[in-house]
Amino acid sequence: MGGGNGRHAIEGMIHKNLLSGGLAAMPVDSDGVPFNMSHIYASGNVAADMHCNVAAESTGRVLAVRLFNAAHDDGMKKMLHYMIARDTMHQQQ
Fold first, then answer.
1. Which domain holds residue 72?
2. Which of 42, 39, 40, 91 is closest to 64 using CA atoms?
């Protein structure tokens, strides 16, 4: 991986993240963009906010299912199976 953005990954790790944070979790998304709470919906309209939350939960579940289908490691598949079940429960709530 790499390209014009100056980031290079080896075995899934972005060197910039390794140099900046060691092995600590970095408060950034998968593209290296810092979390800015833009995914929090608080419009004052409870129904609209819940609609956004349901959409976010279903998007997360779809991603987990796609990753599960692509995974070959049994440990990864077990973790993703748990996450899929958890996201399904969240949607049902």
1. 38-93
2. 91
Give the tens place of pLDDT for each residue, 11-46: 665 666 667 777 777 787 767 788 887 777 788 898
Both 21 and 4 in one domain: the answer is yes
Query: Cα–Cα distance between 70 and 7 in angstroms, integer?
Result: 24
Residues 19 and 58 in one domain: no
> Among residues 70, 11, 67, 23, which one has the least CA distance to residue 1?
11
CA–CA dist 30, 61 (Å, integer) = 17
Query: In total, how many domains does the chain have?
Result: 2
pTM of the full structure: 0.52
